[in-house]
User: What shape does this take?
Amino acid sequence: MKLFESTIQKIGRLNNEFGEAAKKRLDNLTKPIGSLGMLEEIAERLAIITENSNPFIDKKVIFTFAGDHGVTAEGVSAYPKEVTAQMVMNILRGGAAINVLARHAGAEVIVVDIGVDHEFGEVADLIDMKVIHGTANLMRGPAMTREEAERCLRVGILLADGYAAKGYNLFGTGDMGIGNTTASSAIASVITGRNVSEVTGRGAGIADEPFLNKIRVIEEGIRINRPDPNDAIDVLAKVGGAEIGGIAGLILGAAANRIPVVIDGLISTAGALIAYSIEPRVRHYLFAAHRSVEVGHTAMLDMLGLRPILDLGMRLGEGTGAALAMMIIEASLRIYREMATFGDAGVSERDKP
Assistant: This one.
């Protein structure tokens, strides 16, 4: 994987000089130091990521990766797998929640078929980068081969490189795939070392009995496949999903191009955890959009050391949280770029201690 290896090599250390310059400006704005809290932290981080003491965002894109999961055969979801393809079409028609929120945020939505078990044919605006027709049932054996998992990572890297070349400077991640909370919870358990019951939620809203079955299925899948927590690609292949791999690759590619990434909820963060396990420095390029009500999400955010921007009780996916958080990120830059300094406004600074 020459592309994979060269991408990892490009992910360098961050230069905090840009952060120091940004903090100096933020402390000089007409407000008490630190009074805008996380808005100031976001602007400072953007300066460091982009190596620009006056960062800006003018082209935003949210990638919604779609893939099916063979584990749905075990009754782990409230919806049949056919809903994946149906929702892909709904997004392409502009009728999904992600479309509404992305329009509000001024972001484009790119739908990527990386692993849907359906042949769409020629469909306008659908990016066909299919690696597999859905994963295998992880309770019966590996979800993917290692080669398939590597191809999923490659898809994400290629998209990151391509959209970076087009001038996009803020990426968001999203997902669509019935059964993908099962795969994401499996990844969370293996990599964080927590018990399956601690990182598994109800996904699209399953009742008590299916929920207990979901925990049992994940536990059995991990027991059978024995994914190596020290080998992220092995984890992705054995208990993951194509869309999770695509998200992980996108994050690696974005970091190599010094582009910040706003990750959505549980599934996107599972992708981020895979990317982080491959190259830990990617965490510095990530913004956690929100805290999902899925319990595994908090466990993964804790391991990544990321503080969520929003906490709205959401659990939809698609990239909806990323779209909302993009507006907060842009607000932070508006403050940074447009607010007057004490000198500009002729306002007296606070007394020196």
